[in-house]
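CATEGORY: protein folding

GOAL: derive structure tokens
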Amino acid sequence: MTFRNLMATTLLASAMAMPAMAQDRPDLVIAVDNLWPTMDPVVGISTTGARVHSNVFDTLVRRNRWEDPDGTELVPWLAESWQQLSPYVWEFTLREGVPFHDGHIMDAEDVAFSLSAERLWGEEPMAPRGTRYTRGFVRVEATGPLTIEVETSFPDPNLPFRMVTPIGFVLPHHYYEEVGTEAFGQMPMGTGPYRMTSFDPSVAVEAVAFDDYWAGEPPAASLRFEIVPEFSTRFAGLVAGEYDVVVSVPADQVESLEGTEGITVMEKGIENYPMFAFNMLETEALPDNPLTDVNLRRAIVAGVDREAIAAAIWGDATFVPTPFNFPEYGDYFDPDRERAVPFDPEQAAAYLAESDYDGEELIWHITRGFYPNYEIAAEFMVEQWAELGINVRIELKDNFSLAYERPFHFLNMSMSSEFSGDPYRPLWMDWGPQSSRFRASHRTWDMTEDFVRLGEAFEQSQDFETRYQAYLDLVEEWERVTPGMYMWRNVVNYAIDEDLAWDPGNSAVTIFDHLYMTDHNE
């Protein structure tokens, strides 16, 4: 069967199976700045794709953002339960009778394929970006019609938390195998509350309510994610009633928009932290790098008042974090823990005096316009460092490829704290032996022996007390070395029709199901 014929059959079957939609449900139009070229939820890992994915697909496990905006609680979703059979093996038991959009009933073979080496973590996987979430996977197997086992090469007490990431989306094996990766990304199928009907990555995504959705009636009749590149056009359309939700409201526009009649503006902190990495390496392009001196790195961190800068440009919408101490980590979060290198001009001067720095120019590569407010914050920081006698020059680059070109001393970046139940992802995976900070062409540091030793101990810890102490030890080593500096927790802003009862929680992911939208009949 050809892809075209398969889709025609799928859409006809879905239409015949679908009961008449309630007439009072809204047709929502979401004005977005961009869309990813594919809607495969792993191939298309991105903010622009994530806005769509959770409306079309379901994950095995879900984060309860509708009651706790930070989503620190896991709740069963397509997996109704899970248990650790041994330190290396987890079993997931699936819900019975969950339909895909073509009526096919989900089973363990679909889940095993979705998490398979063939798709995510083998030598040449279909969706190689899945490797960031599948570290240590050695076996995924359907052990019954509704049970699967996942085996790892090291004990992972937090493996269920990986199932809220993009690898946790369950895809229909029969359809994916029939059409292939590329075609699936252009017209995907899932078990989610909305069934995709059209996709033009330069124009829009459209989806209609899937009224056989296992978790409850979708509260909207349809969704349209429409690309509107300019914010002024997006906002004008919202005021005119053309759009119901506008994403990516510029931070400097929030205050002026809050008084607009008929409009609600929302500021949401998300699990992403803009920062910069120190290039600590001596290379051919940078043979006499002053930043190999830890005292200079500490002087730079201690010499900038991040709290004042964040408050000046963000107000109270965000905060400056203690490294790897994030509220989304539940019991691992300690609101009273202080940074090892706080703002202290006198101490900064002392660090600088202990260093061998002699006024050399330090170059900061920043990708133009990518991180909201990053460039203006950088200008403030450069002024404060100049008062100490530290000479930093900003070089704006038009894309990341150019930013990664050496030589540079500081490199802009952001680190996701994407939920893994603890700081494993941002601390060990993003700075450890598999990280771009250590392995990529634009790498910025060599791990210390103590960092490796402590990271391996953290990775293999099982009980909370041991793991928590291992985490603290690893953070202490990271702060001792000072390979980078966090700036703030990222913020996303939405403007919505004031009559739309929708709240995404602290997330850049937009979901329009019955948990995030008030019942449309109320």
Summary: The chain has a mean pLDDT of 91. The first strand starts at residue 27 and ends at 32. The CA atoms of residues 59 and 169 lie 4 Å apart. The longest helix spans residues 464-481.
